[in-house]
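Most newcomers find our protein records easier to grasp once they have seen one. To make this concrete, we reproduce a full record directly below:

===
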Amino acid sequence: MKPYRRRVSTLTARRSLRRRGAQPKVVALGGGMGLSASLAALRRITGDLTAVVTVADDGGSSGRLREELGVLPPGDLRKALAALCGDDDWGQTWARVIQHRFQSKGEINGHAVGNLLIVALWEQLGDPVQALDLVGRLLGAQGRVLPMSAVPLELQALVKGHDPERPDDVDTVRGQATVALTPGDVQSVHLVPHDPPAVPEAVAAVLDADWVVVGPGSWFSSVIPHLLVPEILDALVETKARKVLSLNLAPQPGETEGFSPQRHLEVLGRHAPKLALDVVLADEAAVPDRESLADAAKRLGAAVELAPVAGPDGSAKHDPELLAAAYDRIFRMHGRIGPWR
């Protein structure tokens, strides 16, 4: 009986070739499903991949564990690890296991297996980075996952019209889950504590990268928070890496309702005026005004790359193969000459 051979896609073949030689060091910043989409794409084109994940989540299973045990919220870290699992049986089995949520009438209801596993290792080892590295080895993750800070953070926002009965008032809204769902207009966000310490490994990864990918994801609650950690922002400004900002496929109900693609760039620029970018990636069908987007990107020092990156089902989800192809083209066409090209 002949051994089974899996059909190898063009991108898989390209990744295999790169792994036999040098390859780009890529750091991806974000949280939630947006970061997961980016990681699922990036692991197809490089094996030297680090995810730096926001730790301000206060909802669901993560919020309950954070409140009860005083730990970092593990949910976005879990999602990033699942996205880095391979496409073989081992990787996909573990991805399903850590994403599995218990259904019961008791206290365990709604908790994700991966959240409990991560928190258990944090308590056993006393080191969040070491514990995440161990989970990554267990899963066979094709990359590394790091928290952006080693202390739990609270996201706060100034929101105009958070209370529909007072549409002109600006209120301070507290908590990532509340900010993400506000019906008002988010003016700005900040973290508490205001100057949180960054995880040293995250700073080192940014400084050592060839490329840093920011987004896609919830703009105010997953993307911008990285720019509010002083050591990470300083590293982003100082690094010699090229930086690509990946835009969402559509505005998010709540925090970015009604936002144009260029407005996403404008609010990011207001929160981090020292940060310059190299490339802004957007889905070509999601940009009604290309000239305005190009002007907004130019103010950040960036060129715009348009590519079909949306999934075929019409939802606001990126297709991992198409997104991988877009990143690969950007890395080759905009990257500095290096041994990985």
In short: The two ends are 40 Å apart (CA to CA). Confidence is low (pLDDT under 50) at residues 1-21, 337-341. The chain is about 40% helix and 15% strand. The longest strand covers residues 185-192.
